[in-house]
Design a protein that fits this description.
Elements (H helix, E strand, L loop, with lengths): L10 E2 L5 E2 L6 E2 L10 E2 L3 H27 L11 H16 L3 H23 L7 H14 L5 H30 L1
Parallel strand pairs: 3-4
Antiparallel strand pairs: 1-2
Helix pairs in contact: 1-3, 2-3
Length: 179
Amino acid sequence: NEKHTVTVTPRLNENNEYKIGFAPDIRLGLASGNEVNFKRLNPLEAVSTAFFRMCFNIKITVVGVLRVITLRSGIADMSGFIGITSMIGETYEETIKISLSSMIMSIATLCALLSANLGVINLFPLPALDGGRLVFLTLEGIRKKPVPPEREGMIHFVGFVLLMILAIFIAYQDILKML
């Protein structure tokens, strides 16, 4: 919450373009710190940085899903497998121009974000997901008797069908975004 005044001078890059911008302080764990804006970390710093970055990825996944549920974001803001594949390709194309290590770090960061995203979404209490199964286990623990397998199977089947319809709709939206 402080104001800072900074003087910025454009730099000519290898494509003869003048750019103004900044680069993050990228931490490469135990890797070499020879690249510009890359810092070498000791093992404890590497584990700590990875842990807090994954916590951040989980938080932004939960916040993103809550924004969709509360209608502050729409389905158009979501991406399915087509949009994710396109994003990976764009990330590769943009970062390989900088350096191989930038490309590797960007793709690794994107993979970590996708992993956190899938893990969090899988734990949501929806039928056909692990979170839905946890709801049934909780109900069985409270009731002290199992839910009939046929009923649970039907609920998971309906949930699966609805998830597939959602996946197809999101894939359709991804295709429209690419056109």
